[in-house]
Design a protein that fits this description.
Layout (H helix, E strand, L loop, with lengths): L3 E7 L6 H14 L5 E6 L9 E5 L24 E5 L3 E3 L14 E4 L8 E9 L4 H5 L5 H6 L6 H8 L4 E2 L5 E3 H4 L6 H5 L22 E3 L6 H4 L12 H5 L2
Parallel strand pairs: 1-2, 1-4, 2-3, 6-8, 9-10
Antiparallel strand pairs: 4-7, 5-10, 6-7
Length: about 240
């Protein structure tokens, strides 16, 4: 098997180094294949010694930095890249991420058109999709400002529309799949911001799930000890997010 590199991207101060360190620890517990753990970042400080760092290309903002993953030469050509967002919680074995080799593999976005991607978890071979970066970087400001793209995942979907999907049920959404919203009627009336889920209401990962994605708010730390507005407490975070 080619070298396996597990990657994350940390820019600015949105997430502290703690998120990178905990992601590295979770991967170490749940991925049996030998691998390196690499963080693409503009602030290479405060990381566990096991974590290698690579400087992000300059000029990109926010989640658009994830496009850098596809830059030729940034990661060793031919290596199998597993990308994970910092706000995922790994709750089971993740060797399945390396199954079905070849090509780009993504999550299908929850709650959007069937062709939409979610880039919280991706797998690809380094160098094979350099066009995703090459077609973006020279005119990044114009592309970002065009209003055509919700974010990096829309650009990736347009550039690589034939991506494969991970096995159904292995990667789940805290918001969409776990029954995490305590007040669906209030949500439908757009009144949920006024209410708070009671502490006794909790959620667990669905059977067979290995990765829980916390896209948007709340983040894992927001719900491990208490509810977050109408979103239920998730005690499994404290058990696994370490």
């Amino acid at each position: 098997m080619p070298d396996v590199i597990v990657c994350c991207v940390k820019w600015g101060a949105k997430y502290p180094p703690l998120y990178v360190n905990r992601l590295c620890s979770m991967v170490g517990r749940h991925l049996s294949q030998p691998h390196r753990f690499v963080c693409l970042t503009d602030h290479p400080n405060g990381f566990d010694p096991r974590i290698e760092t690579i400087a992000l290309p300059k000029g990109l903002a926010g989640y658009w930095n994830k496009i850098s993953l596809f830059k030729a030469g940034l990661l060793p050509a031919g290596a199998t890249i597993v990308y994970l967002d910092l706000d995922v919680v790994i709750v089971g074995p993740i060797d399945f991420l390396l199954d079905d080799p070849g090509g780009l593999v993504v999550i299908r976005e929850w709650g959007r058109a069937s062709g939409a991607y979610n880039s919280s978890v991706m797998r690809f071979e380094a160098g094979e999709h350099a066009f995703v970066f090459d077609s973006f970087y020279p005119g990044a400001a114009e592309i970002v400002g065009s209003g055509r793209y919700v974010g990096d995942q829309d650009w990736i979907a347009e550039q690589a529309p034939q991506a494969k999907s991970f096995p159904k049920g292995k990667i789940v959404s805290y918001k969409r799949d776990l029954g995490s919203h305590a007040l669906p009627l209030a949500k439908s009336l757009r009144l949920d911001f006024l209410l708070k889920a009671p502490r006794f209401m909790t959620v667990s990962p669905t059977p067979g799930a290995a990765i829980v994605v916390f896209h948007g708010k709340p983040d894992p730390e927001d719900v491990m000890d208490s509810s977050y507005g109408p979103w239920k407490r998730a005690p499994f975070v404290k058990q696994h997010w370490r």
